[in-house]
């Protein structure tokens, strides 16, 4: 299907697959033709509206209130195709595809296998296909490759929400600051931009990786929040760190976040088999939700911003990397914590192989998009 989408977009826009610069209007025009002409078939599912930000307790998922945690309203689960739109709207349309009741978000990186930027056409077709699988939200890790503009147009046309990421690189916070301006520029050029944003994640294991200190990250989050709120944003802001980092620096980080977030990967627990992945995540979310209680009782919601299972690589104790194990793990995760977890990743990312943290040879083999038709 993906090749067909690419070819269709290219022909509709009069552009080659290798095109690297398209206007928002061109992107919206291409998406409109693909969807309105029925060139990508929707799979409609029986769904109910479920609040994806729930407060985790030991026994149940309690919906947050204004008193105990922030809330973000879910879009209407209509499954109806909206009217054709241009690049700018006062508000985004209703979702084009029905949302799957057990899915929340998919992580997406706009890179080729060698780490270069994918073409806008490729990015756009990926987002359309992700939406067709039943996801309501897409997580972006940074502003690279003009991804906000490209994915923003697609999200607006499809009724998707975005988790916007701000990457803190190894060089530290100063090199992350330009992303604040890039997000602000995107907002000013897209009328409905903030209504697309489900949350903003500032830093992705930045403290854990020693790219910055907790104090530096907290100061940066405070600065960014001020800029975004001045520009009209009133949604949640957080950072993604392991439980241990939140616990160690809770007095510094908890006052700066609206909900707790971590990248929970069961594969890295040597005692966890694929079938146990979902249970481990549920347990870790409960523990994570309590880490800020001593400093800010309103911060009780917890989400898993990156999770999955590799289909190739070395064995990690009881955790086996393989196609069969990946399918078992993904099904387990979706069943136990799908509404609070961002699956990772949409496709394999060969550019990650051989990195500093790839002792097991698994970093490029997390692509799980192909499994979703089996869920």
Commentary on this structure:
The protein is an alpha/beta fold. It is 32% helix and 11% strand. It has 11 helices and 10 strands. The strands form 2 sheets. It has an 8-stranded parallel sheet. It has a two-stranded antiparallel sheet with strand order 1-2. The longest helix is centred in the middle third of the chain and has 17 residues, at 214-230.
Topology:
Elements lengths: L1 H12 L10 H13 L18 E2 L4 E2 L42 E4 L11 H13 L4 E4 L6 H12 L2 E6 L11 H12 L3 H4 E8 L9 H17 L6 E4 L2 H6 L1 H4 L6 E3 L14 H13 L12 E6 L15 H15 L3 E3 L32
Parallel strand pairs: 3-4, 3-10, 4-5, 5-6, 6-7, 8-9, 9-10
Antiparallel strand pairs: 1-2
Helix pairs in contact: 1-2, 1-3, 2-4, 3-4, 10-11
List keywords for this structure.
single chain; 375 residues; alpha/beta; 8-stranded parallel sheet; two-stranded antiparallel ribbon; 11 helices; 10 strands; 11% strand
Largest sheet: 8 strands, parallel
| Cα Rg | 20 Å
Low-confidence stretches at least 5 residues in length (pLDDT < 50)?
Answer: 11-21, 37-89
SS element count, helices: 11
Q: How far apart, in Å, are the first and last alpha carbons?
A: 18 Å
| Class derived from helix and strand content | alpha/beta
Shape: globular
What value does the average pLDDT take?
81
Strand-residue fraction?
5-15%
